[in-house]
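Batch manifest, entry 17 of 40.
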Amino acid sequence: MIAVPVLDLQLGTSWDAAKPTFTTERGTYDDLAQGVVSVSSARFNAAGDTAVFAAVPATGPSDTTTKDIVHTIRKAVP
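Output type: structure tokens
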């Protein structure tokens, strides 16, 4: 016997798309989702307080959309 919820069970940590729309993380996710085609996994330093990742934009390096994405990411970092 299998319980019906098991067929749609999703395990793992929540991601930024699942957060409330008023959070900084969700706002940044929404902004990035519109113009980024891929993002690498974050690599943290030994202290765990700084991470490095790569984001590949959907537009070219001199496109204003790409520049806007970079500014959005920089504003989201405290």
